[in-house]
């Protein structure tokens, strides 16, 4: 039996992991343990551990290390505290796993992995090789890749880039496509009526789905960016229902949280949701006319729903994007003008990130490579 650990620190990585951990639970060759930390344990961010438990999974260990502040000092302190807490965790548990999964590029994920290095924990990294020049996550993603033994990427271009980064022609890198797209095939979405009953949001109305995270490289510009997006959303709310999902725990994230809350109080047509969960988020995406923001879901998943995306600013700069992604600056006039155009169009192209059955491909790779970890 292959003993697997899964590091999950946020609603974002958990939603992507979901088809993989479901497949591992069903396969008797795997012994799965979830290691839960980060915003999952934060009531400010919706305490999404509850969603994990609702899905039928139990946390093997819960590790609290996230500070509530969003200043550079708070993020750096949270990184240090996470590394300290995980140094204790790995001291007690590093022998318990054959492979530990780490997904993405969050600072707390990078800290958990960094603490594992002296213990030579075998890390399997999901989705290295990507680039997001407008976010410091770019540094964290590469650091996780450099600390990992197995690599699962979402496109051939990212596989080639990761070989360059690792400078190792023998690195175990596998192009499996995006796990989050497997959710679209396996996860039953809600009907409009079911969604309305659950969230009191009527998707029969013309709706724009908005997810904006801070730019963590040029973080001093976030105040101005927030003003521009709020001006745009205020204008668009005259003709559309605006559904906003709250940003991650990043530097300057509270600027957006406060502004979006105020916007929702001023306009009945603006709704703010802390955490939809994967099923409801994809349901809202399916029935919306358009997506606006700077989140990876707009880059990776929206094309599968034939949606256009207004991708704002530089947070996702450098990431491979399809023709459905319209790149714009944080400029209220350009956002409104483009929203009026693309909300009435349907994207007809393919999704660059799609491959069939990525979870089964990953399980096959694990079984074939497990002997190398003995």
TrEMBL record:
Molecular function as annotated in GO: hydrolase activity, acting on glycosyl bonds
Protein origin, superkingdom: Bacteria
Residue ranges constituting the UDP-N-acetylglucosamine 2-epimerase domain according to the UniProt record: 23-367
Listed EC numbers: 3.2.1.183
Top EC class for this record: hydrolase
Keyword Hydrolase among UniProt keywords: yes
Alphabetical keyword list: Glycosidase, Hydrolase
Keyword Hydrolase on entry: yes
Name listed for the protein in its UniProt record: UDP-N-acetylglucosamine 2-epimerase (Hydrolyzing)
Organism, as annotated: Algoriphagus marincola
Gene: neuC
């Amino acid at each position: 039996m292959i003993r697997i650990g899964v590091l999950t620190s946020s609603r974002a990585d958990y939603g992507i992991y979901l088809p993989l951990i479901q497949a591992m639970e069903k396969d008797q060759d795997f012994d799965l343990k979830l290691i839960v930390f980060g915003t999952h344990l934060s009531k400010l961010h919706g305490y999404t551990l509850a969603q994990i438990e609702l899905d039928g999974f139990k946390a093997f260990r819960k590790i609290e290390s996230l500070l509530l502040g969003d200043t550079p000092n708070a993020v750096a302190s949270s990184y240090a505290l996470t590394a300290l807490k995980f140094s204790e965790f790995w001291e007690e548990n590093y022998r318990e796993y054959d492979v530990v999964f780490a997904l993405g590029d969050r600072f707390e994920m990078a800290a958990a992995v960094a603490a594992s290095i002296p213990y030579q924990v075998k890390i399997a990294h999901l989705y290295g090789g990507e680039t997001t020049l407008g976010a410091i996550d770019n540094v964290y993603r590469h650091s996780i890749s450099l600390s990992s033994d197995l690599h699962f990427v979402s496109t051939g271009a990212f596989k080639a880039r990761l070989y360059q980064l690792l400078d190792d022609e023998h690195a175990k890198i596998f192009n499996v496509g995006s796990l989050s797209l497997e959710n679209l095939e396996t996860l039953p979405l809600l009907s409009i009526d079911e969604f309305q009953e659950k969230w009191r949001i009527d998707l029969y109305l013309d709706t724009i789905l908005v997810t904006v995270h801070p730019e963590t490289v040029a973080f001093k510009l976030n105040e101005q960016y927030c003003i521009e997006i709020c001006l745009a959303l205020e204008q668009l709310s005259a003709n559309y229902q605006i559904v906003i999902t709250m940003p991650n725990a990043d530097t300057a994230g509270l600027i957006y949280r406060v502004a979006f809350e105020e916007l929702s109080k001023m306009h009945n047509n603006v709704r703010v949701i802390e955490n939809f969960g994967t099923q409801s988020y994809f349901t809202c995406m399916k029935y919306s006319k358009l997506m606006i923001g700077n989140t990876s879901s707009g880059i990776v998943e929206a094309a599968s729903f034939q949606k256009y995306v207004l991708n704002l600013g530089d947070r996702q700069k450098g990431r491979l994007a399809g023709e459905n992604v319209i790149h714009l600056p944080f400029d209220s006039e350009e956002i409104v003008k483009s929203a009026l155009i693309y909300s009435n169009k349907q994207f007809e192209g393919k999704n660059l990130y799609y491959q069939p059955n990525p979870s089964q491909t990953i399980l096959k790779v694990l079984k074939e490579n497990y002997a190398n970890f003995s």
